[in-house]
Amino acid sequence: MLSRVIEQVFRREGGRVLATLIRQLGDFDLAEDALQDAVARALERWPAEGIPANPAAWLTTVARRRSVDFVRRRKKSDRELPELSTETDTEEGPATVSGIEDDRLRLVFTCCHPALGGPAQVALALRSLGGLSTREVARAFVEPEATTAQRLVRAKQKIRDARIPYEVPRREDLGDRLATVLEVVYLIFNEGYSAAEADSYVRPDLCAEAIRLGRLVSELLPDEAEPRGLLALMLLHHARRAARIGPDGGIVPLEEQDRSKWDEAEIEEGTAILDAAVAMHNPGPYQIQAAIAALHANAASPADTDWPQIAALYGGLVRRTPTAVIQLNAAVALAMCGDFANAFDWIDRLGASEELRDYHLLPAARADLLRRAGLLEEAAREYRCALELVKAPAERIYLERRLREVGG
């Protein structure tokens, strides 16, 4: 159906058009209203006239003209707005530090400005860059649509009140700001990869949106290695989506997954992107995590997994980002190399620190290692502890399954 084609065009081109309109109009709400009106006009006119050769330019032109009417109607200005230009050039010069002129990159950094809170950054990025509706964003946050709407309103108001510039930061400020952008994109991906409180544990649509944003940042900042590392990491994880949930609705651990269900094309692409990032000789945490994911994804069987190399990579990751969660994963990798004694000591230290006191994967990891060591009674006790903390139904089903296996 033509309406479906128009929807696909909007999904593909909406972010680019909206970014251009926001730059030209200087107002998120006005740009969104104008774009929605242009899409409505497309639904009216394209069935008779056909889809134009350049749908994005058509939508931008119509939206820009409609925005003039909106401004007049709202009596915000009695001045004629300048004629629309479908070019992205501006008097300020290139939109990126690498010379690529693209309004979308300005929008990425605006949505992820540090003046906005983390949830607001994610919501605004999904709404403006991902093209998700307010309802879809609310579903990602597992909250009422009205709550999400207010979150978006406050974020836009903050941008106006704080006069947050619609620009790419200077080279000397890029590092910290880029880290925030990548963190927001990865948060979006993780919400789709393992939604703790949503109806569905795996949200492939949300993962796909994060991957699309990751591609955008990588394409617009080709001289930066970490965006490529993040993109590779997301692709390598997403490649296993079809094998992650079992017939009982519980998660399937990586070593038990049916590898024939893995997306080989995405594994190949993710590995190639990682190789390109590593060749830039500017390593970072996302590249290291992607390298770990690549070792898992490219192993022909669980027995072929290069655990010593994975443990070494986790060692490097811990030195860069020594968070408790990363340390827990590193301890598990150490155990998978056969060093159970040091792994248990490491996990016990993490448990004693109480930093992961309410984190169900701490007792779950301890339980799994105890199970592998044949200490079934102790494993059952830890599985019960994990079950007291777990929220996601898919993870609960998995833990109950393991508890039965050890005779609990």
Note down, in words, how this protein is organized:
This protein has 408 residues and is mostly helical. The chain contains 18 helices and no strands. It is elongated, with a radius of gyration of 24 Å. Residues 78-101 have low confidence and may be disordered.
Biggest sheet features: none
- Which CATH architecture of the domain at 98-197 is right? Orthogonal Bundle
CATH structural fold name of the domain at 98-197: Arc Repressor Mutant, subunit A
What's the multimeric state? Answer: single chain
What percent of the residues sit in helical stretches (DSSP H or I)? 55-70%
Overall structural class, as computed from helix and strand content, comes to mainly alpha
Strand percentage lies at under 5%
pLDDT averaged over residues: 86
**What's the count of strands?**
0
Shape: elongated
Uncertain spans: 78-101
Our count of helices gives 18
Instruction: Kindly provide the radius of gyration, computed on alpha-carbon positions and rounded to a whole number of angstroms.
Output: 24 Å
The CATH first-level class of the domain at 98-197 comes to Mainly Alpha
Q: List the secondary-structure elements in sequence, H or E.
A: HHHHHHHHHHHHHHHHHH
Measured between the Cα atoms of the first and last residue, the distance is 54 Å
